[in-house]
Amino acid sequence: MTPRTGPFPLLIACALGIEHLALRTGDRGGAGGPVTVLRTGMGPRAAERSVTRVLADDPALGDAAVLATGFCAGLAPGMHPGDLVVAEETRDPRSTVACVGTGRLAEELARAVPRRTVHTGPLTGSDHVVRGPERADLLSTGAIAVDMESAATLLSAVRAGARPVAAVRVVVDAPEHELVRIGTVRGGISAFRVLRSVLPAFFEWHRSLLLPRR
What's the whole-model pTM score? Predict the structure, then answer.
């Protein structure tokens, strides 16, 4: 991918209103170019429609880097609400999309929220909330987390044109901390606060895309 020589846009896509609120109220200083936060709606079809439409309809976003974010379910034992997942790739039944700058993102997230664990690995997609034994099935594929929109978001983005893509998710639900259990509210608040704190890391990743590869 050829490095650019000037600012270019960043499109940050999330699904839920609470995720959008966290991103809108986070620290927006330090962006390396124009930033758009898109609420796609829940599920892969909604994500695909929204991302495809905004990239087609807004000429300013024609070559935007795209970062999918929001909450996810952790698959690996030992994960906790508020942990971060940086995707090395996103997967769904249609495709696998490689992410750009995973190491840089993980480093910047560790700086932004130093008390949180950052996991890296494959992020898989689902069209429903994953619970119980299905976690183990997905973990056996090598994935470390699952959500409903990231894979569709990144696939739609690269189909619209060559661009850097990434996905960062905050764990809100994990094998020992399922949503149906007591403590869900506390876990959700923790995940919200973490998501609200990570915008500077996203901006550093975005800015790093302008640097020449060594």
Answer: 0.89
